[in-house]
Design a protein that fits this description.
The N and C termini lie far apart (about 35 Å). About 35% of the residues lie in helices and about 25% in strands. It is of the alpha/beta class. The protein has a single domain, classed as Purple Acid Phosphatase, chain A, domain 2, CATH 3.60.21.10. The strands form 2 sheets. It has an 8-stranded mixed β-sheet, covered by helices on one side.
Length: about 260
């Protein structure tokens, strides 16, 4: 198991949920993987790449076939691929271990251009998941069958999450996002940047001790984080073109590629 690597150039993606009927990742991920591997970048999938909680084996196998073929091409070409497990794919940890070997881990520390970057899925900082992991998993599994009838049920969850965050900011002016708080804790331990996933909301924010980035998702968006000689930037991949996101030092956030004031 590799927990720390030195890598000057890397792209980080999160929350593909391949096999989930709501996810569009399987249709466009292969081109993305081939492009960045061809540019000499390593790839890190930051959790929930494969959907085991809300999917069937047949759906997972069908949806993941193209992306897995692209990953195999990259691996055979000698390009590094790292996989950080999340809460939706942790049951596949041993299967992934036979495929990726030492490149699968619970988190990954990356040295790039003198900067130290922590990559972690982030579910361990989700208050609901931490307080009631069994209830969280039970509800997640219960929603699974609904996705086959109405895949856009995920929009309801996204609306709930964003509404809760807005209400928290209105009624508790000093409230701090648990993810920002966790990132600040890690930054204080000597990291220059922290990259999470899990929330599906792409975001780049300069905190007191460094930079926090959320890699967003590939279910309906195509967000990714680019690490290049220690510089961190957030982007969206669309139809083979790069839509530049905010660069390190800018106080911006992006949700599904739409920039807004941070």
């Amino acid at each position: 198991m590799k927990l720390e690597v030195r890598c000057e150039r890397m792209v980080v993606i999160s929350d593909l949920h391949l096999g989930n009927p709501y996810s569009l990742a399987g249709r466009r991920l292969g081109e993305f993987i081939d492009h960045w591997a061809g540019q000499g970048y390593a790839l890190c999938i930051n959790g929930d790449g494969l959907e085991i909680v809300q999917s069937s084996f047949m759906a997972l196998a069908s949806d993941a076939l193209g992306p897995l073929a692209a990953l195999r091409r990259v691996l055979l070409a000698g390009a590094p691929v790292y996989y950080v497990v999340g809460n939706h794919d942790i049951a596949l940890e041993h299967l992934l271990d036979t495929w990726l070997g030492e490149h699968i881990s619970p988190f990954l520390d990356v040295w790039s251009g003198g900067a130290r970057v922590r990559i972690e899925h982030g579910h361990l900082y989700d208050p609901f998941f931490v307080r009631s992991p069994r209830t969280y998993e039970a509800l997640t599994r219960a929603v699974g069958p609904l996705l086959h009838l109405y895949p856009d049920v995920y929009r309801v969850w996204s609306w709930y999450q964003s509404t809760k965050a807005r209400l928290r900011s209105l009624y508790a002016k000093d409230a701090v996002s648990p993810y920002h708080e966790a990132a600040s804790m890690l930054l204080a331990r000597g990291f220059d940047a922290v990259i999470f996933g899990h929330t599906h909301g792409a975001e780049l924010l300069e905190l007191d001790d460094g930079v926090y980035v959320n890699a967003g998702n590939w279910m309906r968006s195509s967000n990714f984080v680019r690490i290049d000689a220690g510089a961190i930037s957030l982007h969206r991949w669309s139809d083979g073109h790069l839509l530049a996101g905010p660069t390190r030092g800018e106080r911006n956030s992006m949700v599904d590629g739409q920039a807004r004031g941070g």
